[in-house]
Amino acid sequence: MLAPSISAVSPPPVPDNVPRTPTKPTKPTKPLAAYNGLPEDVIYVIISFVCPKGLTTLDNASRVSKGFRMHAKRKLNIYRKLLKPRSNADLKWRVKQWLKDSRAAENRFGHISDWDTSEITTMRELFCAAEEARGVGLKAAMFDEDISRWNTSKVTCMLNMFQFAASFKGDLSKWDVSNVTDFRNCFYEALSFDSDLSSWNVKNCKRFDGMFSRVPLTSELSSWDMSSAISLRMMFAGSTFNRDIGTWDVSNVTQMASMFAGAEYFDRDLSGWDVSNVQNMSCMFCNASSFNGDVSSWNTISVRDMEDMFSGCVKFNSDISKWQVRGVLSMEGMFCNCKSFRCDLSKWDVSLVQGMERLFRGLVPPGYSGLNIRNAYSVKRMFHGADNFDRSVVKSWGMSERALEGMFTGPERKLKERAAKLLDGVLTEGLHE
């Protein structure tokens, strides 16, 4: 443990036989064993507060009476107890006091950077700047103290820990997060955060939902062990992240909805991902305007929802003709405004798909005439804005005119409003689940 700061400790009473003039301590010159095993931090307490002029080394500090050294040791033990929160609730209460008045909290508990969190098991919403969290939203948004030495080895939950903490940019590279199972929204909209997290051990974590949403993260994460992950929903939504994560083991993941929604810079090779257990890919790359990764070999047999999956993905043109989509129920807006998409999907089995609204809005892909859309309950605006569409193929679909109503047209104003709200909607949905 580092020596306590002078501002955080009240000096013990000075024995009558010791002059009261404190002097600045100097670097120790002898090993501690020479002083009957007196801990270094206790000696620093002595030197900092009660040593007379000239007594500035460990050698001279040994002249201080044994009685006083014992007294200083007791004082230090009391100080250590003050630094250690008694429970998870106690830590949360202390943080609240710190956010309200850091000077008063430091005088009472010591500096926040020295707190002993070795027994803490949850840090849920600890620095969350959401106003409803604890009524200290604005001050939490300004928090940026050094907590790099906190012991997080027993922590299992970091849900919403730094959510909306817009000023926080602390170094968390050495934190032990090996027991954390829930990182949901941990850094959501922490607009200044960009710590190196490359060495974090996340092998036990299951939930990463919204973890880096709207975060300017540049850290390498390629070495993360994601084998326990089950949900990556919104993980990088709205983020500037663009690092290689192609080697991640996502074989147990079931949720990837909005994972890269609005991640305008992301364009990495994800061809090696095993997505065979993923059930929800809705909005996964929505408005990821740079993405054109090779996802042709993905096994999508378990996916049920592909709504808006590539909506606004203006550069995307991967060959996904061999995807198995026979279990998909919704493809609404899946390729909406995918201006570069030219893949022939004529071999897709879409017999179970019910929602096809806006599916190809703004484009006419090859092989569209071969799609079996008879079970679709809604095809409104399916080809809205697709000027080159051959309407003669409609007859081959065997659908009534009423069922096909609005396939080629739609209220433009509402479409624009939906497009404007789509990104914000997928980013804010379910933040406090």
Automatic annotation (TrEMBL):
In this chain, the stretch annotated as Disordered covers 1-31
Q: Low complexity bias: where?
A: 17-31
Q: Which superkingdom?
A: Eukaryota
Which positions are tagged coiled coil? none
Q: Which InterPro entries match?
A: DUF285, Liste_lipo_26
* Listed Pfam families: DUF285
Q: Which NCBIfam families match?
A: Liste_lipo_26
Full protein name: BspA family leucine-rich repeat surface protein
User: What is the organism of origin for this protein?
Assistant: Triparma strigata
